[in-house]
Design brief:
The chain is of the alpha/beta class. Helices cover 35% and strands 18% of the residues. The protein has 13 helices and 13 strands.
Length: 294
């Protein structure tokens, strides 16, 4: 989705889960509150059977995921997740909006049941969450000043010209740039796509790296910024998916089964068209299990 970013930040306890653990196990549970919370949380499949609300976690990451004026969950990825959950029998959804860097820690702390942002499947993330199969295949894109005055079309151009690039904190673009040889002090990391465009407009960076939908959404109808054409990258396209806790394999399997007939359907394409999702972004058949191997 945006490239959707790696996690960072401090872990946070869910207080209600922690208190239940304390009541059951005594004060000793305080030392292992996160583990207790994970163990005591009902699975998504069980919650659906019990007609409980499903908590979906996402960041303000348009056009993939964001909260509307009435805090309603919006965005291409969120719409897909909600429709698949409905097909699984979910009748009530509770949105939980957080910073991108808090998504994986929040999932681990049982603040929500599933990450419904557009998160790239990366081996290092696979050690912390279970991914569904992809919902989209996303190429790398770059935003530059109108007319691309620095003539930037690759990471090598950024490196060779000694210019500063900007991307989201933990986006895979950080590691790609480092591998190509862009110095760390020339890699600016910000919160998300809106901040990437702000950095470009302020002249604090010469180029912003991310996915095309995220960058286009942040640029909007603002003048002075455009996508570099072409922009070549050494990495493969990103595979965006949803994420579950590590002990939720049954829920992932059930979600994948419900999603199978929906991804690419006329119903789905009509629902996500207004967010810029088109057939060029449809998954290519790759599976999460294989992508987690790198």
């Amino acid at each position: 989705m945006a490239d959707r970013k790696y996690f960072e930040g401090r872990y946070a306890f869910d207080r209600r889960v922690l208190l239940r653990g304390v009541a059951a196990l005594g004060m000793a549970a305080l030392a292992t509150g996160t583990a207790v919370g994970a163990a005591s949380a009902a699975s998504l499949v069980d919650k659906i059977k019990n007609k409980e609300a499903i908590r979906i976690g996402f960041s303000n990451d348009p056009p993939w995921a964001y909260a509307g004026s009435n805090n309603e969950p919006l965005g291409g990825a969120v719409v897909i997740a909600q429709e698949v959950l409905k097909k699984m029998g979910v009748t009530k959804i509770e949105p939980v909006v957080t910073e991108w860097g808090s998504l994986i820690p929040g999932l681990q702390a049982n603040r929500f049941d599933i990450i419904t942002d557009s998160m790239f499947i990366l081996p290092e993330r696979c050690r912390n969450v279970l991914f569904t199969d992809p919902i989209a295949t996303i190429p790398t894109a770059a935003a530059v000043a109108k007319g691309n005055p620095e003539d930037l079309h690759s990471y090598e151009d950024i490196r060779d010209k000694g210019l500063t690039m900007v991307t989201g904190a933990g986006y895979r673009a950080v590691k790609v740039a480092q591998k190509v040889g862009v110095p760390d002090d020339k890699i600016m990391q910000v919160a998300g796509y809106a901040e990437i465009v702000q950095a470009l407009k302020a002249g604090r960076a010469a180029i912003g790296i991310g996915d095309p939908l995220g960058l286009r959404g942040a640029i909007g109808d603002q003048g002075g910024i455009e996508l570099a054409d072409p922009f070549t990258s050494p990495e493969k396209p990103g595979y965006a998916a949803f994420a579950f806790p590590l002990n939720e394999q049954a829920s992932v399997d059930a979600f994948n089964a419900a999603m199978k007939g929906y991804i690419g359907s006329a119903e789905m394409m009509a629902a996500v068209a207004k967010y810029g999702y088109d057939k060029l972004l449809l998954p290519d058949g790759s599976k999460a299990a294989d992508l987690c191997k790198g």
